[in-house]
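Quick start: read one record
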Amino acid sequence: MSCRIVAGVGRGLDIALTVRMPGAGQSPDIRHIKRRTDGGKWMPEMGALANHAFSKMNGIGNEIVVVDLRDSAAAVTSEEARAVASPAGVPYDQLMVLQSPRLPGTEAFVRIYNNDGSEANACGNGMRCVARQVFEATGKAALTFETRAGLLNCWQGPAAGLYTVDMGPPKFGWRDIPLAEEFRDTRYIELQVGPIDAPVLHSPSVVSMGNPHAIFWVDDVNAYDLERFGPLLENHPIFPERANITLAHIEDRDHIVMRTWERGVGLTRACGSAACATAVAAARLKRTNRAVEMTLPGGGLAIEWRERDDHVLMTGPAVFEYAGRFDPALFASVA
């Protein structure tokens, strides 16, 4: 049940609140706020992002938008995230929203939105972009951020123009990935596309790098219609939280070529967490070394699965493209 409350605040301005009335023991939820001017017309307030500054960046072609809301209590909704991603907005793969830090010693809590409005736990390419922006604003060269996947340490280097993110340890347990049914060995699982006796793709490795990943090992990553198979596999019932789908070819023990269909995004030029998951899966199969060069459609990343603490380090560039402010008209239908 919801109700509408109108209150006069002076100077010919009224405020209308649409409030969802909760069940017993719950707090009311304010859903929409509108204002009425002297002309008598109700005008929607445009939410957290209207006229707010943003930076458009990319991590080897992974399209990133960074928004700093650390000085605001407002939260971005999935509807607002989709509005930003629309053709009239600032199309992106991931929207990185910095909010006030929740833990001491961290620079911000980072919420990550896919362009379909869903939230992601991790985005390696996006974190390099966030790190670069905050490094340049603060003069610092190493910072810690909190995400839904946990704490991520970021630092400049090892060379000029490169940024490293400690993505934490991978997870291999079927419940941790998660999978809908038990697989004791997640180096390969029973999953295939095509006829049983002649599958087109089969037996992927599965890993969690904060997000679920499935990696299919192939001879040529460009020989498959990933735009066709990607959404089918992303939404397969074996993945209760959906999954990122990668095709990977091992060139040698130090080099992997890959393409990814990204959960909540689609075909992407780069997915940092997928690069980490693929490097780890290959090393786990003893087919590569623990430090490898990854070639993605958008460029290259260096991935190291560090033996002393099991953490995965991702190193690559972060490119600033332009800055701007969101057009309030983008959010008119959201408010």
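The helical segments are 78-85, 124-138, 226-234, 272-284.
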